[in-house]
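User: Here's a protein and a ligand (zinc ion). What would the complex look like?
Assistant: Let me lay out the input and then the predicted complex.
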Amino acid sequence: MSLSEDRLDRFARHIVLPEIGGAGQVALAGKHLVLVGLGGIGSPALQYLAAAGIGRLTLVDDDKVEASNLQRQTLFNTRDIGHGKAVIAKRWVSTFDPALDVTISDRRITSENAHRLVVGADLVLDGTDNFATRLAISDACVAERVPLLSAAVGRFQGQVGAFAGHLPTEACYRCFVGDAFDAEDCDTCAEEGMLGAMAGWAATFAALQAVRALLGPSGNMPDIDWGRVYLLDGLKPDMRSFAIAKDPACKGCS
Ligand SMILES: [Zn+2]
């Protein structure tokens, strides 16, 4: 597979990077990414993921746009209030780059339907805001052998972790947070607040990690460090990271 003249133009700034190049751009065009949550993380992340030319996108969100979303959910505008996020996101991608293949789901993720959504994907990026959903997605990713980027944000703090719990020595998201949150809906954004640009920082960092993960060991980007969680501090500001070990008692991956 090679890139047409207009695709070469479109991705010229990627292609001149030795870390990506023409081969990397062709590789991205052949990848399938599932983006779960089109909110503060998913909305800016999608703009960079689509711009990166990831050829196949599945967009999942059961919410409708509310006025209070517009402070950070950069895909949406005032006219979108009251409309479904997944439908608007698909329309945005279709206008932005009609060459990308977009599928949407506007059903709420459960442990039952999560498997069907992630099966066969090259990568899942989870930007949802409650632990029950995040754990359901993590368990489905482990079972279907799909790597997972998990991103979250609140107040001035962001968190982006890369998990490959289906591999024998790598942690999953459940190894990181444990089981305690399975039943709990921990949507604290409304109560605690969030600086809009903080969501954008976590989202674009997650998009960068997604490109790294999709290019993988065969590419020229430094390899992603599975099991590593980055903490973004927007107040200081500062970024640090730590490694998560596989929990031998984890009910998700062990
Ligand atoms: Zn685990």
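Summary: The chain has ten helices and eight strands.
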